[in-house]
Amino acid sequence: MDNYDTEQAGSSHWHLGPIIDALRTSRESTHNIRHQGRVRELPSRTVLRQVIEGVSAALFPTHYGRPDLNDESIDYFVGDTLNVALDRLVEQVRRALRFTPGMEDIAEAELAERARAITRRFAASLPEIRALLVSDVQAALAGDPAASSVAEIMLCYPGTIAVLYHRLAHCLHRLGAPFLARLAADIAHTLTGIDIHPAAQIGASFFIDHGTGVVIGETAIIGKHVRLYQAVTLGARRFPLDATGALVKGAPRHPIVEDDVVIYAGATILGRITVGAGSTIGGNVWLTQSVAPGSNVTQAKMCND
Amino acid sequence: MDNYDTEQAGSSHWHLGPIIDALRTSRESTHNIRHQGRVRELPSRTVLRQVIEGVSAALFPTHYGRPDLNDESIDYFVGDTLNVALDRLVEQVRRALRFTPGMEDIAEAELAERARAITRRFAASLPEIRALLVSDVQAALAGDPAASSVAEIMLCYPGTIAVLYHRLAHCLHRLGAPFLARLAADIAHTLTGIDIHPAAQIGASFFIDHGTGVVIGETAIIGKHVRLYQAVTLGARRFPLDATGALVKGAPRHPIVEDDVVIYAGATILGRITVGAGSTIGGNVWLTQSVAPGSNVTQAKMCND
Amino acid sequence: MDNYDTEQAGSSHWHLGPIIDALRTSRESTHNIRHQGRVRELPSRTVLRQVIEGVSAALFPTHYGRPDLNDESIDYFVGDTLNVALDRLVEQVRRALRFTPGMEDIAEAELAERARAITRRFAASLPEIRALLVSDVQAALAGDPAASSVAEIMLCYPGTIAVLYHRLAHCLHRLGAPFLARLAADIAHTLTGIDIHPAAQIGASFFIDHGTGVVIGETAIIGKHVRLYQAVTLGARRFPLDATGALVKGAPRHPIVEDDVVIYAGATILGRITVGAGSTIGGNVWLTQSVAPGSNVTQAKMCND
Amino acid sequence: MDNYDTEQAGSSHWHLGPIIDALRTSRESTHNIRHQGRVRELPSRTVLRQVIEGVSAALFPTHYGRPDLNDESIDYFVGDTLNVALDRLVEQVRRALRFTPGMEDIAEAELAERARAITRRFAASLPEIRALLVSDVQAALAGDPAASSVAEIMLCYPGTIAVLYHRLAHCLHRLGAPFLARLAADIAHTLTGIDIHPAAQIGASFFIDHGTGVVIGETAIIGKHVRLYQAVTLGARRFPLDATGALVKGAPRHPIVEDDVVIYAGATILGRITVGAGSTIGGNVWLTQSVAPGSNVTQAKMCND
Amino acid sequence: MDNYDTEQAGSSHWHLGPIIDALRTSRESTHNIRHQGRVRELPSRTVLRQVIEGVSAALFPTHYGRPDLNDESIDYFVGDTLNVALDRLVEQVRRALRFTPGMEDIAEAELAERARAITRRFAASLPEIRALLVSDVQAALAGDPAASSVAEIMLCYPGTIAVLYHRLAHCLHRLGAPFLARLAADIAHTLTGIDIHPAAQIGASFFIDHGTGVVIGETAIIGKHVRLYQAVTLGARRFPLDATGALVKGAPRHPIVEDDVVIYAGATILGRITVGAGSTIGGNVWLTQSVAPGSNVTQAKMCND
Amino acid sequence: MDNYDTEQAGSSHWHLGPIIDALRTSRESTHNIRHQGRVRELPSRTVLRQVIEGVSAALFPTHYGRPDLNDESIDYFVGDTLNVALDRLVEQVRRALRFTPGMEDIAEAELAERARAITRRFAASLPEIRALLVSDVQAALAGDPAASSVAEIMLCYPGTIAVLYHRLAHCLHRLGAPFLARLAADIAHTLTGIDIHPAAQIGASFFIDHGTGVVIGETAIIGKHVRLYQAVTLGARRFPLDATGALVKGAPRHPIVEDDVVIYAGATILGRITVGAGSTIGGNVWLTQSVAPGSNVTQAKMCND
């Protein structure tokens, strides 16, 4: 940095021309987001977040919508908020579908109709999703001695937000919009530090306390009344390779956690194993084998193996 | 998904009517935020964040306020910023108080006066809080070899933000606004990945480095000159139940950490134990018993037990 | 809180005068951000984030810019977006430089010219940085069985964002703007839960999966084709002190990770040790000694020591 | 301006102290907006504009609301939009009432109830107001050879906006909120250049073309099917004074314009005169005496007087 | 207003149900913006204003774009700004076309292609429009003794804005988007108080000083080097009716003003008359007959007739 | 428009390249805002409007600032608001000065110091300006039978806003920032339809009612207690030319209006004439000769001349 003086003092030119040329060359050589000459528009993280906030407001209008609604006004609010959210969602579904393997080439009209159908089914699932979320909130209230009210659970627990996003993302995944579901899950990850793959199947009355660092993998299956603490991993132990040595995508490789299990902070549970109903897994435990129902696994025990 | 074609092609109707009916039914059967026919307005996360940012700007005007203040203008800025923040805070305190057990039924005028009193005391506590925060920043500068200036500590350390929010939230908690304090703590958790319950008592010169995944429980007590690293848990070992099997809320169940303790990354310290003054707790240590002052606990030692 | 009634009922005065006086006294006694009578303006977190988002949009216009660009319009977008970002960056570099030890006193004109030179070199480095980022995305696609497309890697992986910010921050660090680089790193930490010091040296094809809680220290050196999972720490074991007992800042104290290493979730690797090329470090492993190339370290093995 | 150099070069101090003192002195000596020790909050121009835009959207949802509403969604939109607007309006009415002569001292609870009653009656008047506005739009379509569609009348005619604001402002005026009504009228004046006092009484099927510079005074009465062009004044000729020489406020002093009258650009009609039904008043005419029904007044005629 | 007390004190219900029912009934009986079961989306005033501001910035980048552009960056700015504006414009043209008589029923694809063609031709016309606007600015500088610089003309003269909007609106009108052109003209009217119908034909070097209240009708034709002052009307004298008594729309009915004419403030010129080249029309003149080239018409003369 | 089909169907390319080339050519041939290779940044309309709103809030904090200020908080608000406004203003003054004839070439440092000096003097003038504005408000209250309160005058009269902007703009003009003063005047013109040149000299207790279309020229001089109505022009009769036939800029050419004059709507007063103290000028009067003090001029009288 000796030669500051020899550069064009006082200039605010950035020599953009060659940089832009080099960036163009780089783009052209390495990736290509066009498909058959057509730009595929990506879904928007900002809009999807607005959609989920809108749906959340429709599901829980006084908690996530407006605090001053009354019997007269609440259904108008729910109806209008939901309508706006769904009108926005259908466009994001449409964009995301184009990136689904096998849908790169279907006609625009069919793509649009599929997006509408998915959105309509998503809307129809909302009452059922709400019931699950109510069970989750009740589980939190029952499970945390520091929790003093439903309002506190709804407003002050990242686990509540993470599960809310997951239940909506899982619905989108199940209805055939996996890319958009992943985007929703990543928004939740950013907001909460909790990373749940949208394909994971999670039963009612689910509660994550504190939550930062929790990871739940793609093929995990979780029963009812399960409680997790921060930094719990439900992960894969190894990744199956195919004959060519490439990763096999989508194969079952994450744990099955049965009903009424509690998993304390920092526990790491890996592979397609089963944690039997009613078990307790202690903090920091490293578990790679199935355990019978009613087991009580602690780190000390693991160290003794 | 075979029957796309049989749905109403081209329609953007979402069949809102039955969904809204079902959501209303779900709301009515499961929870009720009205109290004696009156809506209880929830505090606003957005407004509370603005309040804390305003207070932060008043406490540290050149770091968190505006960079171009000078001797002539700084007190006007502090005064106006603080006044706006307090005017907003009093409304949030008022809303939150209504959710405090025992205050559901007190008269509006008394509620408002309590909110004003709490806000006035909060304001009066700010110089003292500032002194604590200055001690925290100095501890960070002394404790991290990568830190090069006060400005870097103020702007680039999530621990600084987490402790700033905690000291303000703890003050609100202590003055009788526990729900609002929890909301402040959760905002900090979202921003930093550090989860400190507002009831936790923390002495001067406190420093958290990196910080992601730190959890400090409701009844934890931390002395002066304590330093924590990422993913440290000061948690509960078990939750006391009452005669009916329900959780006892608020009982002491988290560690006491005395002065001059250092706790390295990933250590998990559980239960109402005491970490004696001047001790060092190594990374990933799992600690559920008290240790004497001056102890040096490492993972190896724990495994050997 | 018995005496609510004796306070001035109905007043919204906050007794600001004495609070503001006390805050002024506190400011004057404890820190001073003026240098020789001149305010040193701090860089702006908000503006720096806009700068990095602008640069990201210029690097990957269809993913991080606007989804509807075509061959005709893309270079105009890149050029204008980059120009705006660089015009903003140069001011932030200038502000940050003033906080660099040794630059407190240099003349404004020289400071401005240094800021321009750094910004110009930063701009010139962008094509090279883009090439590295492309290698990172390809590594992610190859390394995660749940990843289905480049678009998903770009939009839904916090690791992608963390590495993007790191490569830009590292460039700023290397060009002589360490404070601004730290601020960029902390923005990424907030967004992703991944904390990489901008001085850390990281080779091509780097992939972090899930990522929450990852910490990579200031003097860490990472080779090519390295893969990390959540909660991995590449930290310091102890901090060297100088003759006076003060921390020595900047000394090598973090690991060297050679090419083709995989480090699973929760592993903690501390000190200036070397993880030999092609090694695998298992989940939750605690490692404080160098391991030879091709090692396969698991927790069990560590416990057996 | 010769002595620039003798001022403090390089300073950005504005010598605020004495200016602020002088402004305080000026405030204290000249006006006082407190009433009996209580600040009277002024209504907000910004919020009132939002209220009127919300009401307009509820009245004409596809023109002033959202363009993509359908049979399923439109009533939810209308209901929610109206509810939000009325919730905001009631607070503005409450503030404005405090400035009504005779209401400076009534109790807060009574003031609030009056505001609610006015707002409720305003809401109940909306269908009737809508019918008037529809008649106005039809009159515009019939009366302007350049108009090609209802949509053009709704979106591109300042007269439409002015009349919309007037009909809402007049309703507020009539219900007992004259100050707020004036504020609404002034917003319309700013938007359109058309200045209609909210007390003016205007019949159905009213059309103002071009409109800039039109002034319609407080006690004007206008029949049905009246058409005005730009710069028409319906003003007062002289202001009655009381015995003390002070202005008598509110006395009838503006024209009565009967049904089916056309008044061309720039005509000035002053005093409590009557323009008989079916008359035509030519451009630039200066008229201070009543004219019989069916009159055709032109400038030439006036000059001949 | 005697019975405030008998209403439901304390309620904030607005009795929305019957109001919404009545508004629905009113909508259904009076107008219908659907065409063959399809909603016709209206163009957006807000978006069109953004489009025109974007085009203005592309035409005059340093005056209406960004003040810090240089030789290196200016074309990137122009290209990107123009591209964004045109991408937005094409959607507004498409919406507006659907309201064009005769286009209610054409297929979506044809409508979209027409919109693209119009937008493309509009873009191609911009250099020519810029040349006209430059001539207008030069005419202003030459014609106003108070004007001191081009910058002042560009930034501080409503006439400049009105003519800028008109030249763009007239181009849209000429290319077949008359409704959108009217909307652009009305935006200019709101901003400037100057009301120019987009169909009016106006030659180069046109200058309007002060401008408030100027009205230029649909079929007016104005030559080169014409100067107008505030409150000038170029209007219609009477509206031709067809055999049924309905207005004939679009017939020539406004003045022709030849080259080098000056028309002073408040002059009213009505009907399909011709103001000969080089004439001067005095302030407040009322003119309904053609005048020969070189005429000097003053009010005094008119009064003497 | 027959050949839609022959254009590239489905393309959204706008053929930007040749358009951008043509615009560049047009820019280069017709105007040049660089001065000696340096871009002269234009002042910002948006920022100047914010400055004036800030100054207005500081002058009348409860009317134009925040409605909830009290004795404790008001001076903090005034001080901070004023400081922010002045910090912004100084940059706008600096930019505008560069366009002042004779200042194109002065050094940056001198320009900056002149801008600071002007801003400091502007600040020091504010108490005096406030006193004038208070006299104006009192004149309005005394002069309009429809006005019911000071609050109504402050919030609902465009004349109040126009005079507020004028008094600030005139101060800037007088202190040597004529271009910025013009920009402020044009903002007021846009907001109110009232066009007052900032060089016009206007005495205390000035009131404009309704106001749309009022024009007051550069060299007009207005005494105390003068009242104007809408569409009054105080203009120039003819423009003096120099020996070369070019306009002489700045020569006295607008009326002098002495104390206690009332001028009714639409009156046009042209040339360097004097309207004697206490005169009344009737509506629509056309006046080009001086009138003695106490005159009562009406249109009828003028026609009789």
Lay out the secondary structure.
The structure is a homohexamer of 305-residue chains.
Chain A: H1 16-30, E1 34-35, E2 38-39, H2 45-59, H3 61-65, H4 74-97, H5 108-143, H6 150-156, H7 158-174, H8 178-192, E3 195-196, E4 201-202, E5 207-208, E6 215-216, E7 221-222, E8 227-228, E9 233-235, E10 256-257, E11 262-263, E12 268-270, E13 274-275, E14 280-281, E15 286-287, E16 296-297, H9 299-304
Parallel strand pairs in A: 3-6, 4-7, 5-8, 6-9, 7-10, 8-11, 9-12, 10-13, 11-14, 12-15, 14-16
Antiparallel strand pairs in A: 1-2
Explain the overall architecture:
Chains A, B, C, D, E, F: It catalyses: L-serine + acetyl-CoA = O-acetyl-L-serine + CoA. Chains A, B, C, D, E, F: Belongs to the transferase hexapeptide repeat family. Chains A, B, C, D, E, F: Keywords: Acyltransferase, Amino-acid biosynthesis, Transferase. Chains A, B, C, D, E, F: Its EC number is 2.3.1.30. Six copies of one chain form a homohexamer. Chain A is α/β, with parallel strands linked by helices and 305 residues long. Helices cover 46% and strands 11% of the residues of chain A. Chain A contains nine helices and 16 strands. In chain A, strands 3-6-9-12-15 form a five-stranded parallel β-sheet. A five-stranded parallel β-sheet of chain A has the order 5-8-11-14-16. The first copy, chain A, has a four-stranded parallel β-sheet with strand order 4-7-10-13, with no helix packed on it. The model of chain A is unreliable at 1-11 and 301-305 (pLDDT under 50). Chains in contact: A-B, A-C, A-D, A-E, B-C, B-D, B-F, C-E, C-F, D-E, D-F, E-F.
